[in-house]
Amino acid sequence: MEICVRLGRNVRRLREAQGWSQEDYADRAGIHRTYVSDIERGRRNPTITVVEKLAVPFAVPAGDLLA
């Protein structure tokens, strides 16, 4: 599986487990909601800095989002 798709699936799974909308999660991560949507669909190839921002609201290591 392509790493961008894997990242997107992990982000969506964790976000939904928290009961957050994409907008809620985007606010917590400090990124735009449409960017979250693109990530969840595997259409973005975020930098490692963005991956770290994505991990912070979940309180998980950034690497867990790529596993």
UniProtKB/TrEMBL annotation:
SUPFAM superfamilies for the chain: lambda repressor-like DNA-binding domains
Give one GO term, molecular function aspect: DNA-binding transcription factor activity
Superkingdom assignment: Bacteria
Q: Which UniProt keywords apply?
A: DNA-binding
Q: Name one GO cellular component term.
A: cytosol
Among InterPro entries, the record links this protein to: Cro/C1-type_HTH, Lambda_DNA-bd_dom_sf, TransReg_Diox_bact_type
Q: Does the keyword Transport apply?
A: no
Protein name, per record: Helix-turn-helix transcriptional regulator
Organism for this UniProt entry: Novosphingobium flavum
Q: What is the lineage of its organism?
A: Bacteria, Pseudomonadati, Pseudomonadota, Alphaproteobacteria, Sphingomonadales
